[in-house]
Amino acid sequence: VHINAIGANAPDRRELSADTVRRADLIALDSSQQAEIEAGDLLAAYGALPWPKAQVCELSEILSGKRAGRKRPQDLTIFKSLGLATEDVAVAGWVYER
Asked: What is the pLDDT of residues 33-68, one digit of tens each?
C-alpha cells in the first residue's frame, strides 16, 4: 500500500493516524526541515526529533539512488508532501514552456 499525504501542513493537523505513520516501512518527505516544523502526522507519531532514519527520508534521496524506495510489494510507504515553493515554480515553468 502507498499513501500520498498532502493535506495536513501544520503541527496540530493530521490526516494519518500515529499508528499508520509508525507502521510505515518508508516515509518520504519533500523536505525534512519543513516536516520537522509542519508535519503534524509525524510530530504526533514520533514526538521529539530525531525521527527514525531507517524509516524517514527525503524523496530526493530515493530519486537520486542514495536510498532504496519500496523493497517489498507488501511494504506500507508514505509520501508526506508539505508543498515547496521551488516545486511550484518548477511545475509552473514546465507548464509555461508547454
From this structure: 999 999 999 999 988 778 888 899 999 999 999 999
Four-residue CA torsion sign, 55, 56, 59, 61: negative
**Among the residues of the chain, which ranges form H helices?**
18-23, 32-38, 40-46, 59-63, 85-97
Tell me how far apart the alpha carbons of residues 80 and 69 are, in angstroms, rounded to a whole number: 14
Residue 64 to residues 68, 74, 94, Cα–Cα distance (Å): 10, 23, 21
pTM assigned to the model: 0.83
How far is Cα of residue 9 from the mean position of the Cα atoms in its chain?
A: 11
- d(C-alpha 5, C-alpha 98), whole Å: 28
For 28, counting Cβ atoms within 10 Å of its Cβ (0-12 exposed, 13-18 middle, 19+ buried), the class is: buried
| Cα 42 to Cα 84: distance, rounded to the nearest angstrom | 18
